[in-house]
Write a structure and sequence with these properties.
With 527 residues, the protein is an alpha+beta fold. It contains 14 helices and 26 strands. A hairpin with a 2-residue loop joins strand 19 (360-366) and strand 20. The protein is globular.
Length: 527
């Protein structure tokens, strides 16, 4: 396998990224927001006390509310007043006073008062996670279907201005986050374990949609109708009816349809989503044919790249080019990370019925840098944003190119090599899991042991690439056929790499028990 340092170098992730929940816990600082006990139910108070005890035992730093506060810098206050005068900040924003410092997570109990919610008192709307413990809404239980959970969660996020909503009664609790997941836990069974594995990662790795400034924008535009791109665009369009039939791509949520209590809170919601107008769930993408890399044995590499290889690391650079050293059951090899390009859909588009002239984005990963190209004639508007899962999509794509390069050297007649060189690969995600009995031969499962993090996080991309390469190297050990992978994201859903979107649509729709939204098949993957 590759080291985390090498994986982050490939993906262009420069910041420190904790991957284990114990490590995440020790990185967290939490405060409890003041509340009035008589306005909070006994179930909430009892659970909050157990929650606090568990956090302490797990090594989370808990500080008194007063110690979490700091005064806004004068420069920040001036900007707030200035933009208020211009009418660019809605009424309701507190323009002075102390705020909760950036990086501190806030736990609040019950229904707060508009204008004095925890979110109103944070230093940075995108830099403080808010966790709200609430009473279990009516109609929610262990048998509730996905759409009811989905609608309930989105309404709670908007009304309570919270990143995570933990709903409780006297016997069970459910943590909701933006992954549209709904694990149901018993309060009396393994509470500390479930908080460690099921809540702390969601706090430590909150939703982080990619911003346009993270991409190098190419001036040259591409034409979706030219001969090269046309077949991939048609794959999106022709697969739409089959994928719609599966029910795995439900309509998204528009911010204007959610129950924010005022325009100020709606404005904060847009900040969290990087000015997106809403959220749609799942993605469809087409990795374009890849130019696979030449493989060198380690002995050859030491001759070719004299002075470049560091014996203590499994990667090195030559100018801007990134090379990895991969130890497998078939030997130790060196290769340059291939340039990778993917056509995907812009954030918020209808996945199964898109407009190819407006909804397509072409993204690339070249030497650890993200690039973007837009369709010919398109004028980028403020809501033209890449998918929340962009880094995970690119992680899967570059992993496919790495594996394709190795297979071309080891097994040049491999079907996977032919596919990725000539036709590219379909990459898809939805918020459900595949019935393991239906997974076709040659597809390999990974990820079920990872902790759940929010979509769009660097962790999600790292888990995708690490899992894919490990699944492939295990195939080499067992001398098994490799055609693609099924990436299980706990409390989130499934990523799959398939021959084409048409064939994926056919696979998912050919029988009713292949996949369902929600957690229906997830327990089959637990060990």
């Amino acid at each position: 396998m590759l080291s985390q340092e090498a994986i982050q170098k490939i993906l262009g992730i420069n910041e420190y990224v904790p991957l284990e929940p114990e490590e995440m816990a020790k990185e967290l600082t939490v405060t409890f927001y003041p509340h009035h006990k008589h306005k909070v139910s006994k179930n909430i108070l009892d659970f909050a006390e157990k929650f606090r005890t568990a956090l302490v035992n797990l090594g989370v730093k808990i500080i008194p509310y007063e110690e979490s506060l700091a005064r806004l810098p004068l420069k920040r206050l001036f900007k707030i007043y200035f933009y208020s005068i211009l009418g660019q900040i809605p009424k309701g924003l507190k323009k002075s006073g102390r705020k909760i410092r950036k990086g501190i997570s806030v736990i609040t109990l019950g229904e707060g008062i508009a204008g004095d919610l925890a979110m109103d008192n944070t230093m940075g709307f995108a830099k403080n996670s808010v966790i709200t413990i609430l009473d279990m809404p009516e109609g929610i239980d262990t048998d509730t279907e996905f759409h009811k959970h989905f609608d309930t969660a989105m309404n709670l996020f908007a009304y309570h201005m919270t990143n995570i909503a933990i709903i409780v009664d006297d016997k069970k609790w459910i943590p909701y986050n933006f992954n549209a997941s709904h694990p149901v836990y018993s309060i009396d069974e393994n509470l500390e374990h479930h908080i460690l594995r099921g809540v702390i990662p969601k706090i430590a790795a909150p939703i982080k949609p990619p911003r346009l400034f993270e991409f190098t924008m190419l001036k040259e535009q591409f034409d979706p109708d030219d001969d090269y791109y046309k077949e991939f665009v048609e794959d999106f369009i022709e697969s739409g009816a089959m994928l719609e039939k599966t029910g795995l791509y439900p309509p998204g949520k528009l911010l204007n349809d959610l129950p924010f209590r005022n325009d100020f809170y709606r404005w904060i919601g847009k900040i969290h989503l990087d000015q997106r107008n809403g959220m749609s769930y799942g993605f469809l993408a087409r990795q374009l044919p890849s130019h696979l890399s030449t493989i060198h044995t380690i002995e050859e590499a030491k001759e070719i790249f004299k002075g470049k290889i560091n014996e203590e690391k499994d990667f090195f650079t030559d100018g801007e080019k990134i090379f990895i050293l991969l130890n497998t059951a078939k030997g130790e090899f060196c290769m340059q990370i291939p340039e990778t390009w993917v056509m995907t859909q812009k954030s918020g588009s209808k996945k199964t019925d898109m407009n190819p002239n407006k909804d397509i984005v072409k993204i690339g990963l070249v030497n650890g840098k993200m690039l973007m190209q837009v369709p010919k004639g398109l004028k980028i508007t403020p809501d033209y944003k890449p998918s929340f899962d962009t880094k995970a999509i690119l992680a899967h794509a570059v992993g496919n190119a790495i594996i394709g390069s190795l297979l071309k050297y080891l097994k040049p007649d491999s079907e996977f090599v032919s596919a990725i060189e000539n036709n590219g690969v379909a990459i898809a995600h939805w918020h459900g899991y595949i019935n393991p009995e239906t997974i076709p031969h040659g597809w390999h499962v990974h990820g079920q042991e990872n902790v759940p993090v929010a979509c769009s996080t660097p962790q999600s991309a790292i888990y995708a690439l690490v899992g894919k390469i490990n699944a492939f190297t295990n195939c080499l050990i067992k001398d098994e056929k490799y055609l693609g992978d099924v990436h299980i994201e706990p409390h989130h859903g499934t990523n799959i790499c398939f021959t084409s979107l048409r064939k994926l649509g056919s696979f998912l729709s050919h029988r009713q028990d292949v996949s369902k939204l929600g957690n229906h098949y997830f327990n089959f993957y637990k060990k």
